[in-house]
Design brief:
31% of the residues lie in helices and 25% in strands. The protein is built from 14 helices and 24 strands. The strands form six sheets. The protein has a four-stranded mixed β-sheet, covered by helices on one side. A four-stranded mixed β-sheet has the order 2-15-17-16. It has a four-stranded mixed β-sheet with strand order 4-5-3-14. A hairpin with a 5-residue loop joins strand 4 and strand 5. Helix 1 runs parallel beside helix 2, helix 1 packs parallel to helix 7 and helix 5 packs parallel to helix 6. It is elongated, with a radius of gyration of 21 Å. The protein binds uridine-diphosphate-2(N-acetylglucosaminyl) butyric acid. Uridine-diphosphate-2(N-acetylglucosaminyl) butyric acid binds next to helix 1, helix 5, helix 6 and helix 12.
Length: 417
């Protein structure tokens, strides 16, 4: 299993290009199931989760090809096997995003229940409740959700909780329903308007994506289209925090600063200087970092996917920081690993108190999920001496060539196979 070995203590400096967003690309790839015509997607990041999604779609009969510029063309001319098997779903929960498109286009889907997850329970009841409101029947057998429907019927769906992939699944399903669907208490994450833009290019009629009420007027069929995936706001945030925490000066290109307001506010509170343009940013450390308090919540509030990375930064900030995690009940798995690097962190329930220490000291640590892995890499970049981050297959799920990008910024980091 690959590991990363990091010799910490180098302030990052230089320019880094940000990739397309994993969490926008995954639902957009499944949108190919909604039409028999080709869907061409640009700016798809090269990640393990993307390969897993392409594998899943190919097993269903979707043909895929890569163009010379890294775009992906998908064509679901016929779907031979509307099944998402346990072997794939257990490695990537986003596989559940095939459910809505399959039921809408074919009236049939068999998707494995995702099972346990390192960061929390993560049920899919809201996806199912919404599909039932659109007229699907759902049965459970041998660990699979089996959804069946004739043509879906538009409906008013009020989500009990804000769910990102739940909103995406239902928005996709409703594009081909008969009549109007209104999704209330919808998630507002920027990946949702990006998916809506792709669906609209395919002929869907959607308004309100990016607000908490989305209205979809169903159409009889969707057609092929060409769409470019938005920049990854979490990869952006991860590099911003890495630059700030190492006392660096980094320019990021190919970004969407407007999708990172809450993260930029908190970073500025730590004392770093940030400049933004339309599609670039520059972060420059400005003396000692200051402690911050933050609370994760659905967009536009502070993202849970940036919580662990901020904890690494807070571990060496002056003063005591408080981080409250409200989205996932088990997303502090990085704490014990950071403690092994010398961080002073106490957890009670969903609150972590982080007393800034003078420095971290390198050690061997183990990654438990994607964002926890990123936080341990940042901690390793800050720490004195060598840090080995094990089990980095989590990192490869969501960060494109992270060690190459960090090396180019001056980090002493290498992958050991
Ligand atoms: N929830 C339910 N029932 C549902 C759906 C969700 O109770 O039917 C709960 C979850 O257990 C959680 C909360 O609602 O407590 C929010 O979960 P959500 O459904 O929004 O999460 P998700 O759609 O499964 C996406 C991202 C995650 C990100 C979360 C929150 C994708 C593919 N994944 O997950 O990304 O953390 O939204 O913003 O978009 C990551 O990239 O590292 C990652 C985990």
């Amino acid at each position: 299993m690959d590991k990363l070995v990091i010799e910490g203590g180098v302030p990052l400096a230089g320019t880094v290009a940000i990739s397309g967003a994993k969490n926008a690309a995954l639902p957009i790839l499944t949108a190919a199931l909604l039409t028999d015509e080709p869907l061409l997607i640009d700016n798809v990041p090269h990640l393990r989760d993307v390969s897993t999604m392409l594998n899943l779609l190919m097993q269903m009969g979707v043909t895929t090809s890569l163009d010379e510029k890294g775009g992906v063309e998908l064509r679901a001319a016929s779907i031979t096997k509307p099944v998402a098997p346990y072997e794939l779903v257990k490695t990537m929960r986003a596989s559940v995003l095939v459910l809505g498109p399959l039921v809408a286009r074919l009236g049939e889907a068999r998707v494995s229940l995702p099972g346990g997850c390192a960061i929390g329970l993560r049920p899919v009841d809201q996806h199912l409740k919404g599909l039932q409101a659109l007229g699907a029947t759902i049965d459970m057998a041998q660990g699979y959700m089996i959804a069946r429907a004739g043509r879906l019927r538009g409906a008013r769906i009020r989500m009990d909780i804000v769910t990102v992939t739940g909103t995406e699944n239902l928005m996709m399903a409703a594009t081909l329903a008969d009549g109007v669907t209104v999704i209330e208490n919808a998630a507002r994450e920027p990946e949702i308007p990006d998916l809506a833009a792709c669906l609209t290019a395919m002929g869907a009629k959607i308004s309100g994506a990016g607000t908490d009420v989305i209205t979809i007027e169903g159409v009889a069929r969707l057609h092929g289209a060409h769409h470019g995936v938005m920049p990854d706001r979490i990869e952006t945030g991860t590099f911003l925090v890495a630059a700030a925490a190492t006392g660096g000066d980094v320019r990021l290109t190919g970004v969407r600063p407007d999708t990172l307001d809450a993260v930029l506010d908190k970073l500025r509170e730590t004392g770093v200087h940030i400049e933004t343009g339309v599609d670039w940013m520059r972060v420059k450390a400005n003396g000692a970092l200051k402690a911050v308090n933050l609370r994760t919540a659905p967009y536009p509030a502070f993202p849970t996917d940036m919580q662990a990375q901020f904890m690494a930064l807070c571990s060496v900030a002056q003063g005591t920081s408080r981080i409250i995690e409200t989205i996932f009940e088990n997303r502090f798995m990085h704490v014990q690993e950071m403690q092994r690097l010398g961080a002073d962190i106490a957890v009670e329930g969903n609150t972590a108190m982080i007393k800034g220490v003078d420095h971290l000291q390198g050690a061997t640590v183990m990654a438990t999920d994607l964002r926890a892995s990123a936080s341990l890499v940042i901690a390793g970049l800050i720490a004195r001496g060598a840090t080995t981050v094990e089990r980095i297959y989590h990192l490869d799920r969501g960060y494109e060539r992270i060690e190459e990008k960090l090396s180019r910024l001056g980090a002493r980091i290498r992958r050991v196979r």
